[in-house]
Structures are given as C-alpha cells and as structure tokens.
Design a protein that fits this description.
The protein is an alpha+beta fold and about 425 residues long. About 40% of the residues lie in helices and about 20% in strands. The structure holds histidyl-adenosine monophosphate (HAM).
Length: about 425
C-alpha cells in the first residue's frame, strides 16, 4: 500500500469545505482592496530562488525540492514572491500596468523536517504590490493582512514590525552585529557560528536559548537607519496608529530572506507553539532590479493556510446548510425514470443525487441523512403507475405524494 510522503497532507472531502471558505473569504477581502489574482507555475528555474532569497538562506541551502532535467535544474516553488516578480518582468507588466497589486493562493514546497504546523507541502494565501515605495502602501498591506485575519475569525495574534533600512543600512547593521558578536562566537550555537560568517542577520532569528540570550544583550535599536529610512519607518508606524492597528516594534525581527529591506513584519499566535508565525512579509525594493527589471519598489506578505486553520474559529465544524435533494428509486423501471428526473432537477440548479449502490429503502434513508439532505424523493411502482412522486421533508419529517408535474413547485426550485 502506498502512503503519502512525510510532511504532505490529503485534504479530504470532509475538510474541503473549510478550505473553500478560507479561499472565498480571502478573495473577497483582496477584491475589496483592488488586488487581482495571479497564478504563476508551481515549478521554476532553481536559480530564480538562489538569486531572490539569497544563496545562504536556509530555504535555498537545505529545503529546495529540486528536479534535474538534463542540464536544467528546476525547483518546486518554496514561496510566491520570486515567481510573481519573475512573471511581472517576463510579461512586461512594468511597461503595461506599472503599478500592480496581485494575490495568490496555492501550494508551496519546502523540504523541512515535518512537525506541528510545519509541512513539506503547505499553502500560502499571499499578495504582492509592485511599483511603489510609498510608506502608505506598507500601511495598506499590513491593514489588509489584519483585515484578512479578522475576517477569517482569527483573534489573539500579534503583529511584530521592524525596518531593516536600505542596502547601505543593512550593511551597517551587518557590520555592527559582526563586531558585537565576534567575542561571543564561542557561546553561539554551531549554526550561528556559521551564520556569523555567512548571514549574520539570521542569528537574530535563532530559536536556541543561549543565542536568544546573547541577542537580548545587544540592545538593538534603529541606529542603523539612514534619515530617509527612519522617516519611512516612522510614517508606516504613524499610519498604523491612525488605523488603530496594534503592533510591537521588534528590532530583532530580520526575516530569513535576502530580498527584504525597509519594512519587515511577522504575525504570530501563541497557540501555535514553536512554529508560531501565521504569516509574514515586508518590502523588497531591490528585487525587481535584481531579477532584471526596472528599479521599482515591492512589498507583500503570505499566510500559511495550515497555520491559519489551527487558530481560526472557522474550523469549528462548518455544517453545510441542508441543500441536497436525495432521490430514492425502487425497482428497475423507477431507476430509469429517475435518470431524467435528476437531469431535470440539475438543469434547474437543484443540488441533487441518488443511490448507485443498490441500497434498500432503509439504507437509502440512512444515506440521505448522512448527506444532510433537505428532502428525499421516493419513486416506487405505485408512484410510477399514477405519475406521482413521494416527497419527505427531512427537517419537518412531513411526507406527501404529489403529481410529478408539481415536483418543481413542491421543492421550491
Ligand atoms: P515565509 O515567512 O517564509 O515568507 O512564509 C510565510 C508563512 O508561511 C509563514 O509565516 C508560515 O505561516 C507559513 N509557512 C512557511 N513555511 C511553512 C511550512 N514548512 N509549513 C507550513 N507553513 C509554513 C514568505 O514565504 C514570503 N514570500 C512572504 C512574503 C511575501 N514577503 C513578501 N511578500
């Protein structure tokens, strides 16, 4: 017997309704903010992610699902931002629409060690805005993320925010961190000792207790920010204040991907345990240029749908409203007549089904009950003879025989 590979999940029919609900609500919120959907391919040239996320990023180093095809190396996308930017440039959207607001919903792939809330195939609902560096846009994007959470019945989350500044500021931050940490290297975990050489900002993200203690002693502030970046950050924060969006400035928030600069944010939930980020995002003003496009700003975020499901109140079993009409036919002639009755109902837009398993009348009633049907139609020999049909209302329990010509009227379709 085959089994699914670790870190992947079957979304079974019983769960599909809640996924559809999350997608429906998200699409509604994105539309409200005038974002349109984009659907890039799930597979891209592996180099796209090396260039965007950075060769030293954990995702690139350890977590890529790679596919070798002769000389070409492809990767299942680990995230959506790089693909959206690639698509924007390749399709000349910078020349046609310039400023672009898009959203995406779909699977992402990372070869991580599976644990609660951490999968190898998981799903993002995310958005990207390309073509502006306006701080008010950062406010819109964060308020959109909040609106999404509120509409998905998620409460008790925390928005952490920081500014990494421009490339020069990031260099400055890198250097000051290296200086501050060089005498403490032997107290850092093995990974962070490597990060000190390759990607020092990542040390601020480390979950190891002794590294966290060292980071706490660094007294991080916004000193690395140049006047323009400081101004930008202040405008973002005052925009959030204006909208009464609660946030916490966290100077140790850096995010693990190279493309970020200026505003970065992360939304956490305490009920998630060690993988406590429901979503995250930020600005990437150099990425479009880095991938061969014009010098334009970009910002976006993504939520992990599996994690949203762990904290959303929507998950409390979503009982479908009874909609279905279940047709029970008794005997061969009735079964044949049933084919056209069902076809007519469906043409009228009535949700309907019948039995294909040769169940008894009792078995069919049980099935109708399991399917949460609102009505059962029974077509037996008697009904066929006098051109009628029996209708049982599953909510009130009432039962009556009606002329088949009155069926539509009776079931109010
Ligand atoms: P990220 O922080 O790597 O950011 O992922 C965003 C969210 O995806 C995380 O906060 C988490 O909820 C979920 N997630 C990540 N990895 C896993 C996993 N292995 N299993 C389950 N859920 C996971 C990005 O991907 C950026 N592209 C976000 C962004 C968009 N920044 C700008 N625009």
């Amino acid at each position: 017997m085959f089994k699914k590979i670790p870190g992947t999940k079957d979304i079974l029919p019983a769960e599909a309704a809640i996924w559809q609900e999350i997608e429906k609500i998200s699409r509604g919120i994105f539309a409200l903010y005038n974002y349109q959907e984009i659907r890039p391919p799930l597979v891209e040239e592996a180099k796209l992610f090396d260039r965007s996320l950075g060769a030293s990023a954990e995702i690139v180093q350890k977590q890529m699902f790679l596919i070798k095809n002769n000389e070409d190396l492809y990767a299942l996308r680990p995230e959506g931002t790089a693909s959206v930017v690639r698509s924007y440039i390749e399709n000349n959207l910078d020349k046609t629409s310039g400023f672009l607001k898009v959203y995406y919903i779909g699977p992402m792939f990372r070869l991580e060690r599976p644990q609660k809330g951490r999968f190898r195939q998981f799903h993002h609902v995310g958005c990207e805005v390309l073509g502006s560096q306006d701080a008010c846009l950062d406010v819109e994007v964060i308020s959109l993320a909040k609106e999404l959470l509120d509409s998905l019945s998620v409460s008790g989350y925390k928005i952490k925010i920081n500014s990494l500044g421009c490339s020069k500021d990031k260099e400055k931050l890198n250097k000051s961190l290296k200086d501050a940490l060089k005498d403490k290297a032997d107290k850092l975990c093995e990974d962070c000792q490597n990060r000190l050489k390759t990607n020092v900002l990542r040390i601020l993200d480390c979950k190891n207790e002794s590294c966290k203690r060292i980071v706490d002693t660094l007294g991080l502030e916004d000193k690395h920010l140049c006047p323009d970046c400081l101004e930008h950050f202040k405008t973002v924060l005052s925009g959030l204040d204006l909208l009464s969006i609660p946030y916490e400035v966290s100077y140790s928030l850096v995010r693990g991907l190279d493309y970020y600069n200026r505003t970065v944010f992360e939304i956490t939930h305490q009920n998630l345990g060690s993988q406590d980020a429901i979503g995250a995002g930020g600005r990437y003003n150099n990425l479009v240029k880095e991938l061969g496009g014009p010098d334009l700003g970009g910002i976006g975020f993504a939520f992990g749908i599996e994690r949203l499901l762990l904290v959303s109140k929507l998950t409390e079993e979503k009982k479908n409203e009874p909609k279905l009409i279940f047709l029970i036919t008794l005997g061969k002639a009735a079964k044949t007549r049933g084919i056209s009755i069902l076809a007519d109902l469906r043409k009228k837009g009535v949700f309907s089904d019948t039995d294909y398993e040769d169940k008894s009348l009792k078995g069919c009633m049980r099935k109708a009950n399991d399917l949460n049907a609102r009505m059962v139609l029974i077509l037996g020999e008697d009904e066929l003879k006098n051109n009628s049909i029996t209708i049982k209302d599953m909510v009130s329990g009432e039962q009556k025989q009606v002329n088949i010509l009155d069926l539509e009227k009776e079931i109010k379709c």
